[in-house]
Design brief:
Shape: elongated
Number of domains: 3
CATH architecture of the largest domain: 3-Layer(aba) Sandwich
Radius of gyration: 27 Å
Helix content: 40-55%
Order of helices and strands: HEEHEHEEEHHHEHHEHEEHHHH
Number of strands: 10
Strand content: 5-15%
Number of helices: 13
CATH superfamily of the largest domain: P-loop containing nucleotide triphosphate hydrolases
Mean pLDDT: 87
């Protein structure tokens, strides 16, 4: 889907020297480069009908011709294809060839949407944090439990791509080593829990995720303490005297102690 239809044929099959104006030298296509291995074709449901016919021929004969060439190229390639379209409906509409569909559908692996795989959400989020730590030069270490609960409660209409964008946004907004609810988009933070008719209770969600015996009062109070210290600093625009007042402290030293304790800048 990322390749324009007019370029798809040359990308898949390659071309011979002088096959067209800019063909200064021969180029091997993706099919030829994947010989002896596997080629992944994403969003195959968007492939033009003309290209579908050519791909079908490759699957049936294991041969093709480079653009501008007259020498048959033999390959042994496994094709792995993916789509977010309903290809049965596309076949009925005439936008996807039934013979190609059944040639590809030797083994079908349905992939449920992310909202039906809640156990994968935090795994993906952690992976994205590692990736963005490298690309953004950050050192985010964790997602706050209340933010974790919100991520798990959200329905993710955009699936994994949306989750990746949310994590990237949160890491850009975060100034510490922890991602908080304040770093998440409004559609996630402001979601309503229809089952209880009110705002999502992130702490209740967090408790439900922890295995019995793996939670302590010290951990919970520490999390709450960190949350309110960060809230006070943000509300006071990082004016420590004002933040101390918001927390009910009589001395700024009390706030400084908590900042050192939790490593908050």
């Amino acid at each position: 889907a990322a390749i324009a239809s007019n370029l798809l044929e040359s990308e898949l099959f390659g071309y011979e020297q002088y096959a067209f104006t800019d063909a200064k030298k021969q180029k091997r296509g993706l099919l030829e480069l994947a010989d002896g291995g596997t080629l992944f074709l994403d969003e195959i449901g968007e492939m033009p009908l003309e290209m579908q016919a050519k791909l079908l021929r490759v699957l049936e004969t294991h041969t093709f011709y480079r653009l501008g060439g007259n020498k048959e190229v033999k390959i042994n390639v496994r094709i792995l294809a993916a789509t977010n379209r309903n290809l049965e409906e596309a076949m009925m509409e005439g936008s996807f060839r039934s013979d190609l569909f059944y040639r590809l559908a030797v083994l079908r692996i349905p992939l449920p949407p992310l909202r039906e795989r809640p156990g994968d959400i935090l795994l993906f989020a952690t992976r994205f944090i590692d990736d963005f730590n490298k690309s953004l030069g950050r050192n985010v270490q964790r997602i706050a439990p209340e933010a974790q609960a919100l991520l798990l409660q959200y329905h993710w209409p955009g699936n994994v791509r949306e989750l990746k964008n949310v994590i990237e946004r949160a890491m850009i907004l975060s100034t510490s080593d922890e991602l908080l609810p304040a770093h998440l988009p409004q559609e996630i933070v402001g979601q309503i829990d229809a089952s209880c008719g009110g705002q999502v209770d992130p702490w209740e969600q967090w408790f439900s995720l922890r295995p019995p015996g793996q939670i302590s009062l010290e951990e919970v109070t520490g999390r709450i303490e960190q949350y309110f210290v960060r809230w006070a600093l943000k509300t006071a625009q990082h004016n420590r005297s004002r933040a101390a007042e918001l927390l009910g402290f009589t001395k700024v030293d009390q706030l400084r102690y908590l900042l050192r304790k939790y490593g908050i800048d």
